[in-house]
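Re: that chain you flagged

S.,

Sorry for the slow reply, it's been a week of failed gels. I finally had a moment to sit down with the sequence you sent. For the record, here it is as I used it:
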Amino acid sequence: MDRLGSRFPLPGHARLSVLICLLILTASFLTYPMLRTLSLQLHSAVTGSYVSGTYSVVFVNCPNEQIARDIARSVLDKKLAGSVNILPKASSLFFWNGEIEEATEILLLIKTKTSEVRVLSSYVRLVHPFEIPELFSLPMDQGDVHYLKWLEDSMED
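Prediction finished late last night. Pasting the structure tokens below so you have them in one place:
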């Protein structure tokens, strides 16, 4: 079989250049979330202002108050969030296995860094009793600068 490289040979330095470009592109793609977070923190530090989307609110429904408290406490213990509100008795209607179901659930509002949402979500899925827990986040557009500073400080080790 004829290989593409044997029909259209690239000089050695051109192959190396292409390989380096592909590696840089891959590394940039994989480190984008971290680089974005660092640039937002730098901007906030230099300007003293809040950059929209630096923090998020994660919504999680739980089947009862004890499970909600256990999840909230463990998320805080692991420094995955700075604050958790436990809102009692949310009535939920949803499709499950093709049927409309109704339940009373406890809603957690978890305030965290947007850069931590993926790790937080993975952790909650591990400890949550539901097969598919309701779990989503919304970025914070604005907020009190003192509260946001406290939120940042509370998540540090």
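What I noticed first: The two ends are 58 Å apart (CA to CA).

Talk soon,
D.
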